[in-house]
Amino acid sequence: MGYLEKFLGNTRKTLLYRGIREMNKKVRILIAKPGLDGHDRGAKYIARALKDAGYEVIYTGIRQTPEAIVKTAIQEDVDFIGLSLLSGAHNELFPRVTELLKKHGAEDIIVFGGGIIPEEDIPFLKSKGIKAIFTPGTPIRDVIDFIESQKEAKNNE
Amino acid sequence: MNELVEGIISGNTRAISKAISLVENDGPDKIELLKEIHRYVGESVIIGITGPPGAGKSSLINVLIKEYRKQGKKVGILAIDPTSPFTGGALLGDRLRMQDHSTDENVFIRSLATRGHLGGISLATSDAVKILDAAGFEIILLETVGVGQAEIEIVEASDIVLLVLVPGYGDEIQVLKAGIIEIGDIYVINKADQMDATKLKTTIEYYLELSPDKNANHRKVVLTSSLTGSGVDSLIHEINSTYNFFRKKGILNERRKTRIRKEILRILNSRILESINQTFNGRNFDSSINKILNKKIDPYTIADSIFEEMKKRSQT
Fold first, then answer.
1. Which residues of B fall within a CB distance of 8 Å from A79?
2. Which of A95, B217, B262, B316 is deepest in the core (most CB within 10 A)?
3. What is the pLDDT of residues B245-266, one digit of tens each?
4. B87: buried, middle or exposed (CB in 10 Å: 19+, 13-18, 0-12)?
């Protein structure tokens, strides 16, 4: 235990202390909306909720191409990409993202998805490297648990 | 390490982005990396962009990127947004406004969270600038968090500062105050399509005339609209002429020297803090704290005696 930690003792919950501790590696997550639908309420909700869970969330807004998403993810050095789509084009656009990540040697970035996605499409998407799909009604806790477990698995590699 | 340095120098996106993470997370190889790239640093023009939240800094950057890309220049952008003091999380939304350039190979955008640092930028900003500089970005645009009246660290981090203002933030008295209002090299009145933009321009020009700074009359006020793109040409023109003026007058060199001086002090500060940490590892000064609480002694006397003890120890 460091001097600073000892010295601060009971005040360890203060913001000052938290600020110092939080200098360590942060989990960074890109929330992106591929495709042409403009329904961004879900994406904004998840971005906000993940921010409140203590992650650094990069939000890029609606109508992103898979190329733009992957380029952004690499520049931002994110650990996760969360894709939100409600138009029905998920079977084309989600796998395109994982494909491009592979092409750029960035397949270590974990991809998950959400939106209006029929049950029967989920096995296909998983086979294309989408690690999890969260459909409407998913409690935010499930998403955080997923991120934490993936993070742990990555750290243990 | 060599691989990472080579990657940065050759402009490899993944290398640049991993290197920025390394300095942001204060990783073990950070210092070695910064030493290695030092000889490649110092070629970029660093433009700081600051102003209140919602003034249109990100949108203005979007149009600036477009202009610089027309000139064939490589542009690097660091956009800083605040970290929550309650959760440590952050929502980084600046690049949302810069999506016109999201697939351009010669544009690199990185969002940084303040991670508890006050002053408008993050602690890692200056080191991240060095990485972009070494990677060959001719123009580096630094966007601060939305600032209030006193977050002025951007001055030390950049060669030239654009203060972006919009009409409607108060009366003339706000312009007369100290702090942020004094730091602009160029004052950009954005959202010029709105009412009162010209009035704000006149007020700032009047204040600049009164300024005791002999270079103040070279500080320009430019009206822009990121929405229509109007005024962006003249903004670029003012940036160029101000930069050239700074170079000719030796101001640029002075600023860079100040930056280095402050950097040395900052490194020394952190070294001293580390050594305090090592010297007093495990001690929590309980008895001294109780004495201070009971008014037997004051904190200055205690700190002085601890400091004396430290000096003695470092001599042995």
1. none
2. A95
3. 999 999 999 999 999 999 999 8
4. middle
